Amino acid sequence: TVGVVARDISGNIAASTSTGGMTNKNYNRIGDTPVIGSGTYANNKTCAISCTGHGEIFLLAVAAYDVSCLMEYRDYSLQQAMDLVVNTKLVQMKGEGGMIGVDADGNISMQFNSLGMYRAARNNEGYHEVAIYK
Amino acid sequence: MPGYALALHGGAGTILREEMNEELEKAYLHALEEALNVGYAILERGGSAIDAVTQCCVVLEDNVLFNAGKGSVFTNSGTHEMDACIMDGNSLRAGAVTCVHGIRNPILLAAEIMQHSEHVFLSGKGAVDFALSRGIATVPEDYFFTQFRYDQWMSARDQQGTFLDHNSQAKGNAIPNKKFG
User: Fold this and answer.
1) Mean pLDDT across chain B, nearest whole number?
2) Which of A30, B24, B53, B62 is disulfide-compatible with A4, CB 3.0–4.6 A?
3) Phi/psi of residue A105, each to 5°?
4) ipTM exceeding the 0.85 mark
5) What residues in A contact B73, CB-CB < 8 Å?
6) Which residues pair with B122 in a beta bridge?
7) Per-residue pLDDT at B178
8) Each residue's pLDDT tens digit, A45-73
9) Is A1 within 8 Å of B67 when comparing Cβ atoms?
10) Partners of residue A26 in chain B, C-beta under 8 Å
11) What angle, rounded to 10 degrees, do the helices at B22-44 and B49-61 form?
């Protein structure tokens, strides 16, 4: 699975996710990637999110939209909302994986509860990261 | 000047260090940097977030190292079945596809659905029919073949399980075929 989130100079945000699914999958199994609100979500009022991991759990958790709701209705920051969803809720549901997010102010967060996640990020204030492990 | 920013991922999992040699790690880091540069350059010249997330995702789909597009994994029946989704935070519009075969860049099909159809989510053969009607690039099934993914598939079949993108294929790491696919 691959995904991208971005905030442009006009303050608009967007998210994209694409996947080949799970090795050896059967029965036209679908994970969270193409399901809006589970694997992919974007709303200028809150955040853009792209997820990767055990799709069934991210589906059940409505993970991406949950982050947006925590920000919109409980005034969480992007970092706080993603941390709660990835490192508490998904762990309780035994959902391995992570997500990347950007908020309407251009703040970036990359959170995962697995040993590793391939990720990269950059902003116009000099932040630049490319990494695989924790 | 208001900030612009981009982040990307290439999948998660219990990536074991001992299974990652230096050359492979360098290849992954280079691939991530390359995709990052494409998306960030669009933002830098004032391009839109929706364009940046589309084009950056295409670069990742075209790289065999990642489980999307060209590097997609094998299904139980030995095919490549892909999903993709894109969402615009400004208009709250979105496009999504699932269970498509032979589409070179599923994210471009998802973007086409968002921009040029009255639908949000298309699946299977119908989604491919829409792709053909809109001139989205299609490729033969063997375009998606990679030895690494083929070996992963063989290992999963031996273990009667499935794997996440980057899970170790060592014995016992397959996710057993239970409720979660």
Assistant:
1) 89
2) B53
3) -95, 0
4) yes
5) 20-25
6) B97
7) 32
8) 999 999 999 999 999 999 999 999 999 99
9) yes
10) 75-77, 177, 181
11) 160
